[in-house]
Design goal:
797 residues; alpha/beta; 8-stranded mixed β-sheet; 8-stranded parallel β-sheet
Length: 797
């Protein structure tokens, strides 16, 4: 088992150790040992075979830059005179590595012929070898050593400056396992307010777009995060990926697999490339030949690149297909499109179609076509989707798990759409990501994981969590402690161990409060609704007590972040602001702006406090865009899509009183169960008070309470998961030996209940029970189906 590694920082000593077994350890330390990376007077050289894949040289050059950041020394590439030598290469492609294998100086049997695996081994006082099973494996091995030296994957993307060292030594060896998910990557999406304007105006003005220079930085980040797949940016603000020839070539150089989203079959960007005035309607029935040629041109153009082809057909931009009205007609058109797409792949890419990576993505209405009996060819990967808010809508069933092409997941940590966007701050709960993706993996989704990261920033931690799970599903212990340790490891690496625990507490509270309601949802507005009332900021249905408590909770973490900032080193201040201060303080400020306004409308607070919060967001955003001498100018927009929720609160009065809530007799968090039967419930830190528990199918939890009444009402709040198997997700509830009530909390499509569920991260069910007499009683809640996560149990007389 691959255990999580963690940098240990202190003034005089630095050591990182990863071990899979007692005989498989690799350490990097300032204490003199086997191999010297650098000392005050020396620095090793790095050797790469010129015939190896280009990504190996690219990674080697990045490693040399990492060495310079840490030591200030310039490492030489392919220096014949340097005594200390790092040999990096791909087995079968590097003469030096193959010679060492032949001479029996290294044993590569543990990684050879494996997918993206690598060996790192000190073989002599003056020689260190990094050997990969394939070129990406070699690159991962190089960046693995960088990470052990204390270099963050976010060294460029979040200005994560590594700690300076006078000397570093390497000892031992390490051979990686194959990644647990084969294809792991990110989708750049809704880039109109961050990534695209930043690239066009700041980083790559010569292209005025997201071009090869920007993609080179993105692809290096993917390699550092051990990812291998990109779905490129595709909104109207951005030219198609293949428009700039350097983009695809850059992907080839970095060994990154090019894919495309659910709305972009055959690597086409319909938004940019389909010209209706000259090409006609995107209708596969009436305009078949034009669409066929359009697809075929891209297939021919993509030959020779690593590509994962999305099959099927939808509308031009995230809309349903044209020309087919009934479900049966849609199914027939889909079958024709997929058959012809596969034929062109066999013709132009590989006659053995099973050797061409292909995906079928049942997103939105395509799920209905699939459910109506559409047969996906066995060698195609089925990529299942969440509901855009982090709850997976379909898990592979027994039949789908036999799919030769395997199964995958398309997931969101950023989204534009109804019931409301969340494009500004990345606040999805890590435990939600973990529990959903863990279930997907256990149900057989192991071929592809891809996450919609929006503009990349500020979703750094959530992206890394997602990709770490994809690399090694068991690297994070399956419980709350495991998730908290992962977060602390991330923070220790970025800011040192002295403050990691305190920062983790702030981040956990940030995620908890956003789980109750995301910052972007605080105006009670909605997007893409026909009723105009949803365009106007209105009051939330909260009591004064709830509002004041939330303001207090946000004020506490806002204050803590300001205090902690004083303890962060000067070299880490820009990184601190990007990773911690901006999202936490931004979330606190938008809550203050809107909740204080809700009180001020009733004369219960000063409008000046709401205005001040708005000004704080403006100041924070201006600071973000001026960080690192303007490096990130135009990256952060405090008003994506210019929605009303982001505006200064309108000063008006309200004569409607605040909600008066009835306090329950008892409130139990899931973790406060008295007893359980079956499998012990699992807690991951999810829930309104971080006390939700996952209950295995057939298992139960019990809660004890006392009442003076002969009947009670029980309000159960659950994580609004979708059914894992079939169409139902049920629990049963019983008090004492009374009747058992079985309750289904599945939602249908994107109905009103589902909208409320994703806005509040709760599914709510109410049951009434006769208890016979006053006194002590036991509530028993049993998971009838998989996926039941109990957040809170509220009991009312």
């Amino acid at each position: 088992m691959l255990m999580m590694f963690k940098p240990l920082f202190c003034c005089l000593f630095f050591l990182v150790t990863i071990c899979r077994a007692q005989t498989n350890t690799l350490s990097v330390s300032e204490k003199p040992s086997s191999f010297s990376l650098f000392t005050p007077s020396t620095v090793a050289s790095i050797s790469v075979d010129e015939h190896d894949a280009k990504v190996v040289t690219i990674a080697a050059n990045a490693f040399m830059n990492d060495i310079k950041l840490i030591s200030g020394k310039t490492m030489q590439l392919n220096s014949a005179v340097n005594a200390m030598q790092i040999v990096v290469g791909t087995i079968g492609q590097s003469k030096q590595v193959d010679a060492l294998v032949k001479e029996k100086k290294i044993d590569v049997s543990a990684v050879q012929h494996k997918w993206e695996s690598f060996l790192i081994k000190v073989i002599a006082p003056n020689k260190l070898v990094i050997a990969g099973s394939d070129p990406r494996g070699t690159a991962y091995g190089i960046f693995h050593l960088s990470k052990l030296m204390g270099v963050s994957p976010w060294v460029w993307w979040a200005d994560a400056t590594p700690q300076k060292r006078k000397q570093l030594f390497v000892s031992g060896s390490y051979s990686s396992q194959e990644p647990t998910v084969k294809y792991r990557g990110i989708f750049l999406n809704d880039e109109d307010w961050g990534l695209q304007p930043w690239a066009a105006k700041t980083f790559e003005p010569e292209t005025k777009d997201i071009g090869p220079k920007t993609y080179a930085k993105i692809f290096e980040l993917l390699l550092r995060l051990r990812a291998n797949l990109i779905w490129p940016a595709m909104h109207p603000s951005t030219k198609a990926f293949f428009y700039y020839p350097g983009n695809a070539q850059m992907a080839k150089d970095y060994a990154i697999v090019i894919g495309s989203s659910h709305a972009e079959p055959m690597l086409r960007n319909n938004v940019d490339e389909w010209k209706e005035k000259t090409m006609g309607e995107f209708n596969f029935i009436s305009n078949h030949d034009t669409i066929y040629r359009y697809w075929e041109e891209r297939v021919i153009q993509s030959k020779g690149f690593n590509a994962f082809y999305t099959l099927g057909i939808r509308g031009v931009h995230d809309s349903k297909m044209l020309g087919a009205n009934t479900l049966q007609e849609q199914k027939e058109v889909m079958a024709k499109a997929v058959k012809e797409q596969r034929a062109m792949l066999a013709k132009h890419i590989n006659p053995d179609i099973t050797k061409v990576p292909q995906a079928f993505i049942p997103y939105k209405e395509v799920q209905d076509i699939y459910d109506a009996g559409f047969e996906v060819p066995k060698d195609v990967t089925l990529v299942w989707c969440d509901d855009n808010y982090g709850y997976i809508k379909h898990f592979p069933n027994e039949k789908e798990r036999t799919q030769n092409g395997g199964n995958g997941v398309y997931y969101h940590i950023s989204y534009w759409g109804r019931p409301h966007d969340y494009l500004w701050l990345a606040s999805n709960h890590p435990a939600q990501i973990y529990t959903q993706m863990r279930m997907a993996y256990e149900k057989g989704a192991k071929e592809m994981w891809i996450v919609n990261v929006g503009d990349i920033k500020p979703g750094e931690y959530l992206t890394e969590l997602f990709l770490d799970m994809a690399w090694s599903i068991d690297s994070i212990a399956n419980n709350q402690k495991g998730l908290e340790q992962h977060l602390q490891n991330f923070l220790a690496r970025e800011f040192g161990t002295a403050t990691a625990k305190e920062i983790a507490a702030v981040k956990n509270e940030y995620y908890r409060l956003a789980y109750i309601r995301k910052p972007e949802f605080m105006g009670a507005t909605r997007t893409e609704e026909s009723d105009p009332k949803y365009k106007t900021v209105t009051d939330l249905s909260w009591s004064e007590e709830e509002i004041r408590q939330r303001l207090k909770d946000y004020a506490a973490i806002d204050t803590k972040v300001i205090q902690l900032a004083k303890r962060i080193s000067l070299t880490k201040q820009d990184s601190w602001f990007q990773l911690i201060e901006y999202p936490v303080r931004g979330a606190a400020a938008i809550n203050q702006k809107l909740l204080v306004a809700q009180l001020a409308r009733l004369g219960k607070a000063a409008w000046s406090l709401s205005d001040a919060a708005y000004d704080t967001i403006v100041a924070l955003t201006n600071k973000y865009n001026s960080l690192s001498n303007g490096k990130w100018n135009y990256m952060m927009d405090m008003k994506p899509r210019k929605l009303a929720v982001f505006d200064k609160a309108i000063q008006k009065t309200n004569d409607k009183p605040l909600l008066q809530t009835v306090k329950p007799l008892f409130v139990f968090n899931g973790t406060e169960y008295k007893t359980f039967t079956g499998t012990k419930p699992l807690a991951h830190g999810l829930g309104y008070q971080r006390g939700a528990v996952s209950i295995a199918k057939g298992s139960a939890v019990s809660f004890a309470f006392t009442t003076n009444s002969d009947s009670v009402k029980v309000v159960l709040t659950l994580a609004p998961n979708h059914p894992v198997e079939g169409t139902k997700i049920r629990y049963s509830i019983q008090i004492d030996n009374g009747p058992v009530q079985t309750i289904d909390f599945a939602t249908q499509g994107r109905n009103e209940e589902w909208k409320q569920n994703v806005l509040t991260n709760q599914a709510i069910r109410t049951t009434r029970h006769a208890v016979g007499k006053a006194g002590n009683h036991i509530i028993k809640i049993t998971a009838v189906d998989e996926g039941v996560i109990v957040d809170q149990v509220k009991i009312y007389e």
